[in-house]
């Protein structure tokens, strides 16, 4: 006998294929919904287990809320590098301190010397760690990084900072010394009366625009070791990179200051709640602008870029920029041209032992 074949009309075959495809899509959709429901259920169970454990610990005996106590004991140090938009950022901290209930203190060193004496280092560390009346506290000043661990401190402060393209920072500082800014326009500056442009200074080989003046951001991050202030030291740059990654909570760049503020608000709301909106809408967002500043020519920039000191400072700046952009890429998403902070992306489950 030949094989019995059941033939279907083409239209019925097409309908059967379409019906099968629709059924598969429906099943896939239902499976996806079930998986989403299961995920929500797992999260709900996990949250319930966490609450049960927290309640059980509360019932075991009276104790202070450790998380709250930790927040109230928090200290932030912003060892600001000159001419990196530090005043603009610091004013946000001043504007928020009353509302967010923390103290802001300016570290005013004699002649803005960024290196403290050994005895002042001890005093400073003792003040920061034991001055309970000033906690939570936000300290800012032109002081190079200080390693609190060297002084036997159990809890170190949180370091943050902002850095800037090294040539742009030097140009801004050059004109600031001559013409001041719109923050305190009546204040007489050290080089007031000198009308020489930055281009003319570089062309004549002047000391105020020499490549050695670029050496500032590296020693600020390197710290209080003598080698940090040895201009052109490879060891100092390596130490500055190490500190940036391991000792600083977050380091932003002047060119992307708003994103830096947004990340701080998301990560440290105890201090920076409301900072992003204040920066975007407040009158003090760009409070301090150097006056009479003229952009350098390409020839001037090219001459400075021939220096090994510029190459090292620029390498450090690019390193900091890469770190900041890496952190930002894992913390925010862009939608319709705006950045928004990602919600919490982890939860706890499989918590044992189970409560009775």
Automatic annotation (TrEMBL):
It is found in: Golgi apparatus membrane. Gene3D superfamilies: P-loop containing nucleotide triphosphate hydrolases. One of its GO terms (molecular function) is heparan sulfate 2-sulfotransferase activity. The keyword Cell cycle does not apply. PANTHER family: HEPARAN SULFATE 2-O-SULFOTRANSFERASE, HEPARAN SULFATE 2-O-SULFOTRANSFERASE 1. Homotrimer. Interacts with the C5-epimerase GLCE. This is Heparan sulfate 2-O-sulfotransferase 1.
């Amino acid at each position: 006998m030949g094989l019995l074949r059941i033939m279907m009309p083409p239209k019925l075959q097409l309908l059967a294929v379409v019906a099968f495809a629709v059924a598969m899509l429906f099943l896939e959709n239902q499976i996806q919904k079930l998986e989403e429901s299961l995920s929500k259920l797992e999260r709900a169970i996990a949250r319930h287990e966490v609450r049960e454990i927290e309640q059980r610990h509360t019932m075991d005996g009276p104790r202070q809320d450790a998380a709250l106590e930790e927040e109230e004991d928090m200290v932030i140090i912003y060892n600001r590098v000159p001419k990196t938009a530090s005043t603009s950022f610091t004013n946000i901290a001043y504007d928020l301190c009353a509302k967010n209930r923390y103290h802001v203190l300016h570290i005013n060193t004699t002649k803005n010397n960024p290196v403290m004496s050994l005895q002042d280092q001890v005093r400073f560390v003792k003040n920061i760690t034991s001055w309970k009346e000033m906690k939570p506290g936000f300290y800012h000043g032109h002081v190079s990084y200080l390693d609190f661990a060297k002084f036997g401190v159990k809890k170190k402060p949180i370091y943050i900072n902002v850095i800037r393209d090294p040539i742009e920072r030097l140009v801004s500082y050059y004109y600031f010394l001559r013409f001041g800014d719109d923050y305190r326009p009546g204040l007489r500056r050290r080089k007031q009366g000198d009308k020489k442009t930055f281009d003319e200074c570089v062309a004549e080989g002047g000391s105020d625009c020499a490549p050695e003046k670029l050496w500032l951001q590296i020693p600020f991050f390197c710290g209080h070791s003598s080698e940090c202030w040895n201009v052109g030291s490879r060891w100092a740059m390596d130490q500055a990179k190490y500190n940036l990654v391991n000792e600083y909570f977050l380091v932003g760049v002047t060119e992307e200051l708003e994103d830096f503020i947004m990340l701080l608000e998301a990560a440290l709301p105890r201090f920076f709640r409301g900072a992003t909106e204040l920066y975007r809408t407040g009158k003090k967002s760009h409070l301090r602008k150097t006056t009479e500043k003229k952009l350098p020519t390409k020839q001037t920039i090219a001459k400075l870029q021939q220096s090994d000191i510029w190459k090292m400072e620029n390498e450090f700046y690019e390193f900091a920029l890469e770190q900041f952009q890496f952190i930002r890429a894992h913390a925010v998403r862009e939608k319709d041209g705006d950045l928004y902070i990602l919600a919490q992306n982890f939860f706890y489950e499989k918590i044992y032992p189970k409560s009775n």
